[in-house]
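seq/struct pair 1
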Amino acid sequence: PITSSLLVFPRLGNPYLAQSSYSILSDLLSSAVQDSSSGIRDQLSYILDAVLSSSPAKTDAALAPVWAAVLGNCMLALHATDSEKGAKDVSKAWKAVWPLLESQDTEIRKAGAQALKQVGQCFTPSLIRIALSEDASQEKKSVIGKIISQTTKAFDALSFARSIPELLLVVSSLVENLRYRGGSRTAPTAAEQLLLPLVTRVGDLRVQKTFEYKEAADDTLSTAMRILGPEILLRALPLNLEPADR
């Protein structure tokens, strides 16, 4: 019953009340995933709509991080309750959080990347299959296809120049959340089929002398190694051990 009251406070224009209510709401949503007796599950769609309709400015260091946490936790709770219903909100949630990665504030960008990771955990087999069915040479229209295209383009955008560590976290989470294999256990993962060009791009950035975020890139490539397997990754990113390769 307290959730309806908590959602009123952010609309009152008091930053302290808004921040506190979002923090409490985020905790309630986190516990709702484990506690099936929580009545909050019946209100998840209402909560999500309310949170999406009150997004803070990407410059709001007080509200943006806690708002992102509420949105991410709400999506996870919705996914745990009804994964297909939650999948329908993936696109809206991703679009709402994405601008936070352009913020000049590091904490806002980190909170945004974490929320995007949570939204990515709501990918369902049906969403993934739609993305896999798209023609590789044509413009992407699926939810996941658009997400991958947006992330790829961000590496070349000046507005994301300071956001490379967060973009690398997003790539890692995409690889994790696309480990789906259609058919047999020997079938290629969706990550291999959809993300290999982006992973290759990260590998290319990693070896540039002026690249500043090599540790973050290593973490992303480590995730790719674990999900894709060494054979796939090393085929795309050869170690150049042979003299002729060097």
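seq/struct pair 2
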Amino acid sequence: MLDPQQIKIVFFDIDETLYIKNQKTLPASVHTALEGLKRNNIIPAIATGRSGCALPDEIYDLIEKFSIELFVTINGQYNRYQQQEITTFPITMSEIERLIAFFQQHQIDYAFVSEQAIAVNRVTDKIDQALRPITERYIVDPDYYLQHRVYQMLVFYDESQDQLIAESGILQSDLRVVRWHEFSVDLFAAEGSKARGIQNVLEHFNLKPENAVAFGDGLNDLEMLKAVGFGVAMGNAHPQLKAVADYVTDDIDDDGLYKGLQALGLIKS
């Protein structure tokens, strides 16, 4: 059972956990929930597949209002407290060039993800369809990686090419992909995950997993829920995430985040 007195940090995924992406809105109860955590001296933290440059405006407002200072971003590849980097895991130049050569050979589009920008190799309808709900501020720069640290790539292909990627050997043993859209996957270090980022953060603060709770909904939250003392899946979460969660709360649009925190005794009604 969860001991609320032990909890020092709660990590929140963004899309479909804090933020309803297709409506571009936050449930009003999210503000009430974060106010309750602050009153109880529990740190609210962001743990997202997004880069810091691609957060929704509503999340930027939330960060400012509640002085959120702890971030696990780009699936744990870039982790910071306030303006101080805790750990970062960029992809090497040689690895990027090997990937680009393969994708160009197979006419597969891609994007580079840094903390400052998302840069696509070109613009197509499918790329725009995938990226626009995430950010409209992406740029076109096929040489972006030459001057900037890249922590993740986005690769634009549908499930019909999953087998090609899996059997090609292009990922070798040190890279993996996680699908987040029908037209796109995240590509990052095989050891990379929100879980690794959270572990780095907890070590930075001299805390243990049992001092942390995490809320999520997607497949890139699987490791995260296992890495903390208590993992919560949203009611709208992927079935695989619900299967590993310690607790399943209500849907995001039914105040699931607020109700989950309340049920765990981390905030009062």
